[in-house]
Specification:
2 copies of one chain form a homodimer. Chain A has a single domain, classed as UDP-N-acetylmuramoyl-L-alanine:D-glutamate ligase, CATH 3.40.1190.20. The first copy, chain A, has 10 helices and 13 strands. In chain A, helix 1 runs parallel beside helix 8. The model of chain A has no long low-confidence stretch (mean pLDDT 95). In chain A, the strands form 2 sheets. Chain A has a 9-stranded mixed sheet, sandwiched between helices. A 4-stranded mixed sheet of chain A has the order 3-2-6-7. The longest helix of chain A is centred in the last third of the chain and has 18 residues.
């Protein structure tokens, strides 16, 4: 079992969906990733919070095996994001972004994090993602996420960052925007030509597709009777995916291990969307994760003699 | 192996996509359904064409085991549909609809079709669908498709028609519109409360979901490096689905047989979208169908010890 070092945001989120509203719940890519991955392995978190951030939550992370010595407490307010979803919850509409302390984020990695072999570069500027990576001595498996903002404003730097990674984990609309190619099979070829041999395309309620050296793998979304809030689903997916790989210490990634990791990603995302913020994700029991994995086995099984 | 009787349109389609244009290619739900199903079993077709419809095509259907004695040749022009797709090929935008001879369609079923046990009520008015069904003596498995037009104009008659069927095969956006429920799990409950115990939701490039008495089944779309024209994909899906079930004579539908039928539906749809009209579908070889079924097995496999 290898630890994972991750970089990302810790935030207050204000969310509106057709099914309700939540004001200033805890969120941010580092939180969703760390919580999801913490079910599988230990996590080393690099992030930044303001003085208004609740200490109890940092303690909760610690109690779950997340090392928060890379989370800087900075004067000022915590990053705040406000967004809205319509019935089609695959796309978030940003209402407001207040960077606050995130503008001072320097991504300094504590010395005892620097031997981490699994690295997750959560959504932030390509420069910060590269700064984190440069401090890791001998990374063996690096995955990166991004968003439309960096594709639009820093595409060259982003592709440079992606080129140093083993895996790109990204939304469907964003991989199309990034590669400027609509067809996913062809978009995957473009990404792989930059360096990463693994592309995971996240498709919201439709699940995810994995492209690697062989034939693609398609994982469905779990049909749920109630979906309350998709915020954090992508980072929870990444947490399940990386968490599973790191828990088994898989560097030489066999085909089916990668595929199982995608399913564990879908499992963690399916928990996250069932309530606002990470209210559901944080309360999941280990046997529920395995139970839901088994539901994916059943959900996709047809070739039975 | 049981024959299937189907009702639907035969048409000329004019299609625009970002990847090209095709003027007045042969199309219509009865054509796509019959061609796809003809790989699995014999098909009995009830439709109508005008004087401008090519005799060679009717002969081609005959040569493939499609009994066209229910296809009426009427004075006037064949039904014509013109539509456009943008990059998101999951939704067609209708540019023009000329019903032409379709307005005189009476759906009279030849006597020797009336013992058919498998019935496919392709997209047409609920009244015509019911008229066809009323002429079948002892149907054992009835599936129905529809479209937004009938949901908007004839919802009550449509639900009455659906209530007489074993399976509803329908697009994702349309099942939401029909049930007035966004969540698919809940929409499936509504449909099953009307009568049909089987709901198949077609999701374009994302595949299909099957709801029956047990846990749902999710089939992916096949990631293709080139998709030219999605017209007819839904009817080709229905042809593969019904064709497989009828070929095995499955009335008491076991869980995995229904699931395999969904995969054969996806297989036939994946062929159709690779060229304009049914240019590709009509040239598929039987071993290509099995080969593509095997690709679906691989595409979805992850639980390997």
């Amino acid at each position: 079992m290898a630890p994972i070092v991750c970089i990302g945001s810790m935030a207050f989120d204000s969310i509106e969906t057709p099914f309700g509203k939540a004001g200033k719940v805890l969120g941010g890519s580092a939180n969703y990733f760390s919580l999801a991955a913490s079910y599988f392995t230990s996590v080393r978190c690099v992030s930044i919070v303001g003085e208004d951030y609740p200490k109890e939550h940092l303690e909760l992370l610690q109690n779950r095996g997340v090392d928060i010595s890379g989370v800087k407490l900075e004067q000022g307010k915590t990053f705040h994001w406000a967004g809205r979803y319509s019935y089609d919850m695959n796309t978030a509409h940003t209402l407001e972004t207040c960077l606050n302390v995130l503008e001072k984020f320097e991504a300094n990695v504590p010395a005892h994090f620097q031997d981490s072999e699994f690295v997750f570069l959560g959504n932030s500027t390509p420069a910060l993602q590269m700064k984190l990576l440069s401090q890791i001595k001998r990374p063996k498996f690096i995955a990166i996420d991004t968003m439309n903002l960096w594709i639009e404003n820093s595409r060259d730097a982003l592709i440079e960052a992606i080129s140093k990674c083993h895996a790109l984990i990204i939304n469907e609309a964003e991989v199309r925007q990034l590669t400027q190619v609509y067809n996913l099979v062809q978009a995957a070829k473009a990404v792989r030509s930059w360096g990463p041999q693994i592309l995971v395309v996240k498709r919201g309620e439709y699940g995810a597709v994995l492209f690697d050296h062989g034939e693609p793998f398609s994982a469905p979304g779990l049909p749920l009777a109630e979906v309350k809030d998709p915020t954090g689903a992508g980072d929870s997916f990444a947490g399940g995916f990386m968490g599973y790989l790191a828990s088994a210490g898989h560097y030489s990634l066999s085909r089916y291990e990668l595929r199982k990791a995608v399913i564990y990603g879908c499992v963690m995302a399916s928990h996250t969307v069932q309530d606002f913020g990470f209210a559901e994700l944080v309360n999941v029991k280990k046997d529920q994760i395995q139970g839901r994995y088994d539901r994916f086995v059943d959900l996709t099984r047809f070739h039975v003699e």
